[in-house]
Structures are given as structure tokens and as C-alpha cells.
From TrEMBL:
Residue ranges annotated for the CobW/HypB/UreG nucleotide-binding domain, each copy included: 8-186
Record-linked InterPro entries: CobW-likC_sf, CobW-like_C, CobW/HypB/UreG_nucleotide-bd, P-loop_NTPase, Zinc-reg_GTPase_activator
Keywords: Chaperone, Hydrolase, Nucleotide-binding
Residues in CobW C-terminal domain copies: 258-337
Stretches the record annotates as Disordered: 206-247
Organism of origin: Paenibacillus marchantiophytorum
Organism lineage string: Bacteria, Bacillati, Bacillota, Bacilli, Bacillales
Entry protein name: Zinc transporter
PANTHER family assigned to the protein according to its UniProt record, in alphabetical order: COBW DOMAIN-CONTAINING PROTEIN, COBW-RELATED
């Protein structure tokens, strides 16, 4: 099934780092380019102040009064469903709260992609460079660890507020983030000013390759929130400083497979048990040729689990595989082989 999927981008970054500043610029760019962006805005408070900065004609869904990664699972999926159904956007930006753990959001979006025509394209993390530097030199507490996690999950990293840093200090922050995430492309920005074709290219690259999604197993295990952090905003100085650094390939990928055929459950289990170790997470909704029920399939930390389900509405047989630098072709070829075997067995049984 080759349905055009809505590209989803997660905007991550600590409180006040410049996410909304980036969002408004991205919306202007994509709107002018004739695309239809939509936004899911998550705020800890009950009022969406940042939403005021987004043009009223841009479809927006608000998740207020809590952090997406702590609130009840499914809220984000519902918001995605409503936007996709009611507004038919080309792309969706999810602006998380500054205290959100991106791994949880990645998980919810990939869950939603099993049921909806959406596809997570990238995690873009905006870093308050002066704040990160200060924390690295002083407290290294919860906020610091959360920033580290947000940086590790990114495909694209903006070292923002570079107008507030001297060159040497900037180099220190640069070394720090590259140590945590050597795969993301890193860009120095002032007021989150970035060449938007970089975001578009993440998109274009993914037309040919599996979708690029930032993330580290390590980061998942260290899940921590910095809800006690303070929100320090710096005054603007306006000095333009925009350096571009190496553009490396995104390291974490998701491959989505739509099944044309029910497969044999035992053969599928065997396939999963032999997945390359670079694939560390998979999930799906499947029909098997040898069972009457459909199953929700989960695979994490090399453990698999199958639970009977009756999905609401029309849901295709689909599985998503998430991992680092694995070959999408190997996974696809093995699954196509399983599907072909079902057909052969059905014919020979006649
Ligand atoms: N000096 C300076 N200020 C900036 C820069 N980028 C953003 N700001 C300011 O920083 C403040 C926070 O920016 P936002 O874009 O609202 O940050 P945010 O990440 O959306 O903030 P939260 O919604 O609280 O998480 C605003 O006052 C911006 O004008 C920058 O590069 N330099």
C-alpha cells in the first residue's frame, strides 16, 4: 500500500531555547513554498501562549496542561488523527514542552503511524548554547541530563543564541554536543535562523531511504524529566553568526512495511528472532495465515510480544522497524519472502 504520508517533525529543546522562534520561521517558509503545515503545540500550562505567535490560518491542535510525555498515552495520536482527517496537511510540526523526553514522543508518533498515514521524518533539537555551556561548567543536574537526552535524539541540531557566546565558548559547546551525538548535523544559529532546505532535504532524503528518526537506546534508558528547571530567557543582541558544519547521515531509521498478504505466525516469529541487532524496536498490527485473530506485535530489547486485538476502523497489516543503520532492503526482502511463502502454501494446499 503506497499511500502518501504526512511528514511529522518533532521540535525538541529545553525551555526557552528557541523552538517557537524556529516554528514560526518554518511555517512561513513552507506556507510560501505552497505546502500546508499544521502544528501540534504542547504546553505545560493551561494556556497556549506560543500558539499566539502562529498565524491563525495554520491548523493547530493544542495539548495543554501537561507534558506530552507524561500525560495519558494516546492524546498525541488523537491529535494527529484529527489534524490529518480534518485538515489534510502536508507536514506536521510537534512542538513539545521544553521538559519533554523526545523518546516518548517518538514512540507515540511511530505508534500512530501504524494506524494513520503519518510518518516521523526527524527530530530537530534547538539548544540554548549559553545555557548548556553554563550547566556543563556548574551544576550538571537534571536539566543538564534532559538537555543531553534531547540532543542525543536529534537528527538536526541547532546551537542557538550564538550571539551571546564568544567563539571559544561556542567551540566548547560544539565539542560537547558532538560528543553526545556525532550523527546529527549541527548548525550555529541566532534566533533559530536556519536554511529551511535542510529540513526539506531531510524530507527528500527520506523519499529514497527509510525515514530518519533520531534516538538512542541509551537515551531511552536514562529517561528523566527536568520539571524543576528554571526558564531563563536572554535578551537579543542581533549579531548574525551562522556557521554550518558537517552534514552527516541520520543514524536512526524507521522502516514501515505494509503487508499485502497474511504471513505464517511461526515464520514471522522466526524472522523477528533473527532481526539484525541494529533493529532494536519494532511494532505492528498483523493478520496471520494460521490464526483467526489479528495481533498487536511488540518487539523491544530483543523480547517479542503478541496480543490479540480487534482494531477500530480499517487498519492495514503493518509493521514498523526502528534501529540504527540497518538495511531497510534486508528487512523488506525477508518480509516479502514470508508473504510469497504464504501464497505458495495456499496454492499447494488447494
Ligand atoms: N539573544 C537571543 N535570544 C533568542 C534567540 N532565539 C530565541 N531567543 C529568545 O528566547 C526567548 C525564547 O524563545 P522561544 O522561541 O519562545 O523558545 P521556546 O523554546 O519556544 O520556549 P518554551 O516554549 O518556553 O519552551 C524569546 O524571547 C526569543 O526571542 C537567539 O538566538 N538569541
Amino acid at each position: 500500500m503506497s499511500q502518501k504520508r504526512v511528514a511529522v517533525y518533532i521540535l525538541s529543546g529545553f525551555l526557552g531555547s528557541g523552538k517557537t522562534t524556529l516554528l514560526t520561521k518554518a511555517i512561513d517558509y513552507f506556507t510560501e513554498a505552497g505546502r500546508k503545515p499544521a502544528v501540534i503545540m504542547n504546553e505545560i500550562g493551561e494556556v497556549n501562549l506560543d500558539g499566539q505567535l502562529v498565524a491563525s490560518e495554520v491548523p493547530m491542535s493544542e495539548l495543554l496542561g501537561g507534558c506530552i510525555c507524561c500525560s495519558s498515552r494516546g492524546d498525541l495520536g488523537l491529535a494527529l488523527k484529527d489534524l490529518v482527517t480534518d485538515e489534510q496537511p502536508n507536514l506536521i510540526f510537534i512542538e513539545s514542552t521544553g521538559i519533554a523526553n523526545p523518546m516518548e514522543i517518538i514512540d507515540e508518533v511511530t505508534d500512530a503511524s501504524l494506524l494513520l498515514p503519518v510518518e516521523l521524518k526527524a527530530v530537530i533539537t534547538v539548544v540554548d548554547a549559553p545555557q548548556l555551556l553554563e550547566l556543563s561548567r556548574t551544576s550538571r543536574g537534571k536539566t543538564y541530563r534532559l538537555m543531553q537526552e534531547q540532543i542525543r535524539c536529534a537528527n538536526l541540531l541547532l546551537l542557538n543564541k550564538t550571539d551571546l557566546l564568544q567563539t571559544e565558548a561556542l567551540q566548547e559547546v560544539d565539542a560537547l554536543v558532538r560528543d553526545w551525538n556525532s550523527y546529527a548535523s549541527v548548525h550555529y544559529t541566532v534566533f533559530s535562523q536556519i536554511d529551511m532546505t535542510l529540513i526539506e532535504n531531510l524530507d527528500a532524503e527520506d523519499e529514497r531511504q527509510p525515514s530518519a528518526v533520531g534516538g538512542h537506546e541509551e537515551a531511552h534508558q536514562e529517561h528523566e524529566h527536568g520539571h524543576d528547571a528554571d526558564d531563563e530567557h536572554h535578551p537579543g543582541h542581533g549579531r548574525e553568526e551562522h556557521h554550518e558544519h558537517h552534514h552527516s547521515h541520520s543514524h536512526v531509521m524507521a522502516y514501515t512495511h505494509f503487508f499485502e498478504q497474511a504471513v505464517d505466525s511461526h515464520a514471522f516469529e522466526e524472522f523477528v528472532s533473527k532481526l539484525p541487532q541494529e533493529v532494536y524496536r519494532a511494532k505492528g498490527i498483523l493478520s496471520f495465515s494460521d490464526t483467526s485473530s489479528r495481533f498487536l506485535f511488540q518487539y523491544a530489547y530483543r523480547e517479542m510480544d503478541f496480543v490479540k486485538i480487534t482494531p477500530k476502523g480499517v487498519v492495514p497489516d503493518v509493521a514498523v522497524f526502528i534501529g540504527e543503520n540497518f538495511s531497510k532492503d534486508v528487512v523488506r526482502t525477508a518480509l516479502l519472502k514470508l508473504e510469497a511463502e504464504t501464497t505458495v502454501n495456499a496454492v499447494s494446499a488447494e
